[in-house]
Amino acid sequence: MIMQLHATLLDSLRLLRSRHLFRLTMVLSTIAAFALFGTYSFNKNGIKFLFFDTWENPLIASNTPGMGAFIAYMFNDVFLKYWLSWGAMILAVVSTASILPDFLSSGAIELSLARPISRARMLVYRIVGAVLFVLLQSIVGVTLAYVLIGMKFGAWIHGMLWAIPLLTLQFIYLFSFSTLLAVVTRSTLACVIGTVLLWFLTFIIQFSASQLNTLAAQQRSMNQQQSARIERLEREISEATPEQQGRVAAKRASIASAQRRKDDSQRSLNKLLPYAKRLSAAELVVPKTGDLRRIMANQAKAPTGIEFFSLLSEGKPQFRPQEMSEEEWADIQQASDDAERELRNVNVPLSLGSSLAGTCLLYGVAILIFARRDF
């Protein structure tokens, strides 16, 4: 069995290595890593890009927490999100789509079936060979970024290495549908189009659920903020001395304003929750690829978007619409940050368990069809 697995894996890797997309992915991963982590440096005054003058910002100067936060954000929200999770993954889906159709094509499958090995094991070995392609791709891209960051900035962020198994798991999710299509149709084009359509459908469901859950979390945060403000103002009124009675009327007006905002947020929350629950239920039946990046963000301790842009603006308040008071704008900013933090609190056992259950079901159906099919 070991020799059969070894021979099958070598055959799959040899096939993938002979294709230009494999080399292209490795080259692009190297370019992306050096572009994102090799084109700037930190000093005592801030950050310096290539040969340009230093952008002075004490919050992201060398050996500050902001430097680590900047690097973690660039890794998670740029390198991982846009290249490894999307660009490189699309190339991987296209590169591996023909492995099983070629294996199942007339002429090739008859020779394979003549070997003393069960059909189920034969198909599993081919699947493992395709997964190794993405595992190797992930190891190269993530390790290169990890070593480059560590050697250049002295920041060895070990949590980044979790991206290797998580990216591989993302591909395992997607390749399960490609496997089923390959067994049913034996068409490379059907595998590519079908997998991309499944991925797009998954993205739409997860993106919609994420947006609704973010809005709901913002309204919950606003509600809590206004409740705390009302409680604080009422306590100040009850403890006011005779000399402070002149300010009581202004505080009562602030309480009325806070109560209106609290009521508005509660009404919005009540409208959003039914839709958010329906989409969350729909998420259970699709592979949750988006949760993998949130898990990665927690492992790498990446800042939220608001925290990152606050670093870039040196902690100064961001642009505030003229019609909003400073208090209202601060509440909105805090609610947005709280919502992003809440969204990152992924129920890991539920997310991975439900995704793997659906994935294993698709692989199981594919293996069953292959084992029973007459070639």
* Regions with little confidence, pLDDT below 50 for 5+ residues: none
- Radius of gyration equals 26 Å
Proportion of helical residues: over 70%
- Cα shape: flat
β-strand number: 3
Mean of residue pLDDT values: 84
Question: What order do the helices and strands follow?
Answer: HHEEEHHHHHHHHHHH
Q: Record the strand order, biggest sheet.
A: 1-2-3
Biggest sheet overview: 3 strands, antiparallel
Oligomer class: single chain
Task: Provide a count of the helices.
Answer: 13
Task: Describe what you observe in this structure.
- This protein is mainly α and 375 residues long.
- Helix content is 77%, strand content 2%.
- It contains 13 helices and 3 strands.
- Strands 1-2-3 form a 3-stranded antiparallel beta sheet, with no helix packed on it.
- A hairpin with a 3-residue loop joins β1 and β2.
- The longest helix is centred in the middle third of the chain and has 51 residues.
Q: What brief labels describe this structure?
A:
375 residues, mainly alpha, 3-stranded antiparallel beta sheet, 77% helix
List the helices and strands and how they pair.
Blueprint: H1 2-17, H2 20-37, E1 40-42, E2 46-49, E3 55-56, H3 65-96, H4 99-104, H5 108-113, H6 119-153, H7 163-185, H8 188-238, H9 248-283, H10 289-300, H11 305-312, H12 326-344, H13 348-372
Helix pairs in contact: 1-6, 2-3, 2-6, 3-6, 3-7, 3-10, 6-7, 6-13, 7-8, 7-10, 7-13, 8-9, 8-12
